[in-house]
Structures are given as C-alpha cells and as structure tokens.
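Recap for those who missed Tuesday's class. We walked through two folding examples back to back. For each one, the amino acid string is listed first and its predicted structure tokens come directly after. Nothing is annotated here on purpose, so try labeling regions yourself before you check the end of the notes.
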Amino acid sequence: MEESEIEKCPLLRVLLFIIVGIYLADYLGRGVSTEVWMLIVLVSSVGFVVLSFCRKLQLAQSLLIFLLAFSVAGWRMCLQQNQLFSTKYDQLDYCQAIVAQEPSIHGKVVRTKLLVLDGQNVGQTFNISILRDRLLEKWRRIHEGDGVIVHALLYDGAFIYKDNWIKASVSLSAVSGLMRLRVYALKLRHKLLLHISNHDYSPSFAIIAAMTLGDKSYLSKEQKNDFSAAGSSHLLALSGLHLSILIGVLLLLFPKNRWQSQLFILLAIWAFVILVGMSASVVRSAIMLSLCMLMHIADRKGFSLNSLSFAAILMLLCNPQSLFDVGFQMSCMAVMGIILLTPNIHNKVGSILLVSLSAQIATLPLTLYYFGQWSCYGIFLSLLVIPLSTIILYGMLGVYLLLPFTVFAQKLYIVVEEMVEILNKVVSFVASLPGAMINHVYISKFQVFLLYVAILSFYMAIKKFVLIKK
C-alpha cells in the first residue's frame, strides 16, 4: 500500500519530540537545570553511537534519536530561560540602539522599534513607546536607521520618558558583521521609502511600504482593520508569497538549470531578507524556499512535509521561544495545510482557490483561539487580490530597479499606485459587506486539539478513499 505524506516524513516525528521537549522545559522552568538536560543529551548520544553498530536494534536507535531531539530542545529552552532570568530589570542603564522602524504617532506617544547595540540586550529588537514632547518635538528628527542613546529599562512594550533618550551617532565596532548588515539595510530601506514617497505618505504608499519592504508603520488602523476583515492581512506581511514572486522574476532573468544561477538567487533572497529587517515571518519563508532551491540543485523532489519539518527544526533549535510565536504557528500550519490538503489540478483559478482554502482550513483552529474571528469572504477574495498583488510587486520591483532613471521610475510608480488604489478599494468594499467577519468565537486549547484531530481524520479518510478507488 502506498504511504501517505505523513507516514514518509521521519523529520516530522523528530519535530514532534522537539516540540514536546520545549513545552516540558517551559513548564518545568528552572526546576530542572541545564546540567540535567545536558546529561540526557550525552546519554542518548552515546547510546545511539553504541547501538549504531548493531543493525538488529533499529527500533532502539530510533527511540534514542527521538530522545536526543527531545533533550536537545529541552536544553536549548532551559538555556534561554536562564538567560532571561539573569537579565536585570531593576536597574536603569545607558545603551546604544538603532531605530529599526519609522516612528509613528499613537495618541500621546510615538511608537517604534529599537535594535540594541550594546549591554545585556545586545542584538535584540524591542517595540517601544516614547512620550511625545510637544515643545521641542525632537522625536520628529529621528528616522529608521538613526542612532539613539537610551537611559531606560528595555523590554518589549517598554515606555521611555521624553528626557530619557537622545539622538546620537552610535558605534558599530563592538557588534557582529550580521548586525552591521542589518543596520546598513535599515538605512537603505529608509532611503528607498523616502525616495518613492517624496514625503507624500498616502494610503497607497502605506500599502506599498508594507507589501514590498515590510514597513507597516505607515498603515492606518482603518487599513489594518479592513485587510483583516477581508481576510487579506497576509498581503501586508512579507511572507512566502512575496519571496516566491521575487524568485519568479530572478528565474526569468537567469538560466534555470545552472547551479551558479541557483546560488545567486539564494544570495539575492537573503539580501532581501536583511533589507526588510529580518522579521520572523520572512526568515521562516526564506529558510523554506532556500531548502527548495538546494533540493533543486541536488536534483531532489520539491518542497515536502519533510522539508517543512527540517525548516521548523532549524528555527526551533536556534530559538526555542519561536514555538510560542503566533506567526510561527500560523505560517507552519498554513504551509502544512497547502502540502497535505491541496490536490494537483491544472486549472489556475481552481488552484488559487484550493491553496487559499487549504491554508485557511489548516489555520482555522489557531485563528479562532488567538483572535476569535473568521473572515467569510477571504477565500473568494484571494482569486482577485493574489493576482493583483503579484502585478503590484512586479511593478514595484521595476520601480526600485529604475530609481537611477527618475523619470521612468516615477511614471511606473504612478501606474503601480493606481493598482494599489484598486486593491485598497476592493478590500474596503469586501470588509464593508454584511457578514464579512464572524467575531467573538473564542475556543480553548483542548478545542484547538480536537479541531486538528478532526482535520487530520478528514485528511486520512480522503487519502484512504483515494487509495481504495485506485
């Protein structure tokens, strides 16, 4: 009998044990030391090496691999927790930072992101709020990529008093090469946005900034609500859709069958990831697409559940806290839904509809659990907004390439802006329709589990029915 997609994915089983290890380490907290986790890692490693010489004990070898994955994940989570607990939150300190997002006004405060360059939080990015000073308005003089010196407790959601920061030239000598690249990329992104906006921050520009360079600070609350109600929020968050379009353009420009071209495209993908700020969603997508490219170079099968599992394993071992990130959970489940639930059909319209439906079915339990809402028209709206957003992204890529030729870039930008206005009007119209959004449907963790059991049972039943018909 032919194996299902799940049954032929050994890395999926390893991923499940990694998830269990992270959850258990988080639940136990500091009750189990890193030394205990490390001891389990060493015992399982030695046991696997010893048993690897005996081919008859394959079951025991598999169990030891799972134990090793479980213990390594628990050890990494325990290390992160110890680092978190060792951070001192009771002392004010001076630190240098880079403004990682264009500041935006929200009532009496200005919100932005800071990339910390020194101190105990070096390398971390925090969402912060700065009290507006209405007399000097010095917050107007800081932009994305600028340096600041802060005298405050920094954490996600921190509040900084108006006199506790100052714009300054900051030193990058003590930071890593990757962080320097991030800082230079932030400055470049700000220059690009400034160039195309010409200080005209219209609603269309806000959507373009979010869709092409990952800067959502220009979006109004009304725009965010409309895209959410219409089920099109994914267009405003850089993800696999945007990177796939970039790859499509590069594949048109370079030979598909030469490994040098594939490697160049890989470098271009990661250069773009750095340029847009290395957000979690775009990094996840880049890892998955990089795996696709590498498998194509190695002449292997395209992206599969095994590839998704490998990408998730890499991200969880690098940062176990990603497991509790809503974006990580949503994107992984969406890709899994597309892989498992989308049948192969040759009709383009049907393909778009089925991909959207598969992703929404796979993320439905998480959407209800975290947000308590569901967009009723999102599946059908995808038939229009995905092709339209593809045209917009292609057009904006042309605008960025033509920036040295200002006249041509401006004319193309006007055309793209009109397309964005159409997209905005369509989304606003759908969001205003009666019954566009079902609200206040919150479910428990156990109900999330039951829903996924039901979806998995449905998938297995369909696969069994198809095999019986064959």
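Example two. Treat it independently of the first, because the proteins are unrelated.
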Amino acid sequence: MDIVLINPPNEENNNLGILPPLGLLYLVSALKSKKIDVEFLDLNINSCYERFNDILIKKEANIFGISCFTEQRNSTIGIVDKIKELIPESKIILGGVHVSFMATQILKNYKVDIIIDGEGEITICEVVKALKDNEDLNKVNGIVFKHCSNIIKTASRELISDLDSIPWPEWNVVDFDQYDFYKKYFNSFGIYPIEADEEIRGASIITSR
C-alpha cells in the first residue's frame, strides 16, 4: 500500500467515549480520489492494534500519516517511535492543529519527517506523490519538513475555497458499532437517558465548513 493513516489513542479522557475521526476520513477519500492506496487504522479500536502490528512486522508500508490533537500527543510519539524502530526508512507525516503550531519543535525533537500545516486534503496527496516519485518536497505548499539538519517551511497553502470539490468522508472504513460517544455523552449529562442495551448511532460534522 502507499500510505497508512492512523488515529492515535486519546490517553487523557475517554469517559465520554470515542468518535470516528472525521478529519482523517476526509483524507482517506482525498487519497482514494487520486488512486492512492491507503489503509485507515483507528488505534482507539483494539482490533486495529493487531492490524497495525502486522503492518509493521511485514513492512507493508513505508509512509505513515498520523493525526494529532493535543490530548493525543504522547501516544502519537509512542507510535512514531515504534514505526521508526521497526521500519527505520519509513516516512512519518503528522497533521492537526497541535502539530501545526509546534512544527519546528516537533521536527527537532522527535522522529517525525513532515508536518502538514493547515488543511490536508490536497497537501497529503501531493506529499505522498512526491515521496513515491522521489520529487522535491520544496514544491509542495503547506508543509514543514526535515532535510538533514535543517527545518524547511514551504509556502503556505490557501484554504480550499470550493468545499464542494472535497470528496465526502470515507465512512465505509469505520465500524460504527465500535464507537460509543453518543450513548455515553447523552447519559453523562442526562440529556437523553439510554438503556444499556439500546442502540444509538451518530456522526459528527466539521461546522467550520
């Protein structure tokens, strides 16, 4: 495969359950639209850990993209270290608001190769193509990357103006039965008490779009 996209565990607070990682699902769709072979793993789901370990042992990929929110920062670095230990030649891409703000610090101190700064749907496709074809990353807008001992920031990428051009999230790569946020959320605030055996399903939206 060309790239594995990973949602790291949220190590700080799972009392309200977990949601499908919508941002990553947009990236899966964007990559597939460019005929890029991608696999998605949510490491909040136990069965995905088995697949993750299998990929590393068999060296089925050498490009890994990891989403990182602040509450995932420690687990993200653990995943980065594990990938680099078993596949040293791999390229690791991080994305998310947390890493965008701390790109230089992260690249200097951890085994991360590239950080996507801002929206990722277009950028991730260009990065994967550049890595596969051994092209110059300087030509990819919207990234910060490590080259030898230097940290290089490319030109900023403009926000996507035509939101209708973005493919719908790739919902069919997630098993909704594994996500329990809505049941725990409604019960915790007494909004809509739900019996233990009652099923409730839902999905999030990115309201800024």
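Answers for example two:
The helical segments are 22-33, 46-58, 73-86, 97-101, 103-109, 121-132, 181-189.
The chain has a mean pLDDT of 88.
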